[in-house]
Design goal:
The protein starts with a strand and ends with a helix. Helix 1 crosses helix 3 and helix 10 packs across helix 11. The radius of gyration is 21 Å and the shape is globular. The strands form 2 sheets. It has an 8-stranded mixed sheet, with helices on both faces. A 6-stranded mixed sheet has the order 11-10-9-12-14-13, sandwiched between helices. The protein folds into 2 domains: 146 residues, ATPase, nucleotide binding domain (Nucleotidyltransferase, domain 5); 188 residues, Nucleotidyltransferase, domain 5 (2-Layer Sandwich). Helix content is 36%, strand content 20%. Keywords: ATP-binding, Cytoplasm, Kinase, Magnesium, Metal-binding, Nucleotide-binding, Transferase.
């Protein structure tokens, strides 16, 4: 069974074609700058050279059509015809409280996704466009939506509600939703497999650390808390996002700097985080280089990030009554040796002890704690597309 997975952003399309017989990737790629000048499309077929094309791509429908043509191209393709693709899986950012699991696309599902646009205004519209484009170009092929918020729907009410008047939740659905759910789900399940242990016996803290970053507490297979909130702004210090801060800062700075609500939103989401503190970059690699060259603000930004992650790990260990495993994933979590060390130093009271030799790895699965440590520490590269493909296969295999 071959399954095509799409992740449509506001101006981009990521894709992978899986052969679910062995879960291998037949082709993958990225279409960037859709609707903008300088559109570029990168296509990587298995066993063949990468193809990079600069062409005007006006909308997502055109981008998806190019992808489909490439998959069947005599030179760069990997399948004989579109008939080989039996289903399509889509990452959808926000399902609100409507969806706690992946579902088959249908008119009621699409209506519900549209109703969640106000909760995910940058991503849900692009996700909808991608689904509709596939419906037009691949009529009759079943499609499945996999929600980034779905994994966190097991949080108890006392964890996801904010201490503001309850009417805000009743009227506007203001609550913590959490994001990166597909990634947290994958690595928590994967670490249980690596430990040859049932996930129902493990208390796992998963750290998805990249330009956007979040931590989740996964107790016996269910998420009970996560650091992102109503939006991805809450929680950790991130590349350009402030993370947790005193809400009174918002009206204070708006008055001082004469900012509108939109300007303040941009200030917190686009100008803050390690970029705002370091003054160097939102890319952690650039900030680490600057810190190594003696830039004190860059070093401060990294210390702030590590401290915030360490605080969340400690609080989630308390929330779960202990912790058995800590997992690092995503760009920074998988590749920054020094950041993993910064975060773990100071957690020894929990029973952690990082091994410097084992920790000297990038982008590969590995246990990095010292032998015999009470709490296991793992690096596990995330694979959100595989989760989407697996869900799609499971749902579509049951269709008549």
């Amino acid at each position: 069974m071959k399954i095509l997975v799409f992740n449509c952003g506001s101006s981009s399309i990521k894709y992978k074609l899986f052969d679910m017989a062995d879960e291998s990737v037949l082709a993958s790629g990225l279409v960037e700058r859709i609707g903008l000048e300088g559109s570029v499309w990168t296509h990587q077929p298995r066993g063949k050279d990468k193809v990079v094309t600069n062409t005007d791509i006006k909308n997502h429908s055109i981008g998806i059509q190019l992808v489909l043509e490439a998959l069947t191209d005599t030179k760069h393709g990997v399948i004989a015809s579109m008939k080989e693709i039996k289903a399509v899986g889509h990452r959808v950012l926000h399902g609100g409280e409507k969806f706690s699991a992946s579902v088959l696309v249908s008119p009621p599902v699409m209506k519900a996704v549209e109703e969640c646009i106000e909760l995910g205004p940058l991503h849900n519209p692009a996700n909808i466009i991608g689904i509709n484009a596939c419906g037009e170009l691949m009529p009759g092929v079943p499609q499945v939506t996999v929600f980034d918020t779905g994994f966190h729907q097991t949080m108890p009410q006392y964890a996801y509600l904010y201490a503001i008047p309850y009417e805000a939740y009743e009227k506007y659905s203001v609550r913590r939703y959490g994001f990166h759910g597909t990634s947290h789900r994958y690595v928590s399940q994967r670490v249980a497999e690596l430990l040859n242990e049932s996930i129902s016996n493990l208390r796992i803290i998963t750290c998805h650390l990249g330009n956007g970053a979040s931590v989740a507490a996964v107790k016996y297979g269910e998420c009970i808390d996560t650091s992102m909130g109503l939006t991805p702004l809450e929680g950790l210090v991130m590349g350009t996002r402030s993370g947790d801060m005193d809400p009174a800062i918002i009206p204070f700075l708006m008055k001082k700097e004469n900012m509108t609500a939109e300007q303040m939103d941009n200030y917190m989401n686009k100008k803050s985080g390690v970029l705002g503190v370091s003054g160097v970059s939102s890319d952690f690699r650039d900030v680490e280089t600057a810190a190594n060259n003696g830039n004190e603000r860059a070093e401060l930004a990294l210390e702030m990030f590590a401290y915030r992650v360490r605080k969340y790990i400690g609080s989630y260990a308390a929330a779960m009554g202990g912790v058995d495993v800590i997992v690092f994933t995503a760009g920074l979590g998988e590749n920054s040796i020094s950041m993993r060390e910064k975060i773990c130093n100071g957690l020894e009271f929990l029973g952690t002890s990082i091994d410097p030799v084992k920790n000297n790895i990038r982008g590969k699965e590995q246990e990095i704690n010292v032998d015999g440590a009470k709490v296991k520490i793992f690096v596990i590269p995330t694979n959100e597309e595989l989760v989407i493909a697996r869900d799609t296969k499971e749902i579509c295999s049951n269709l008549a």
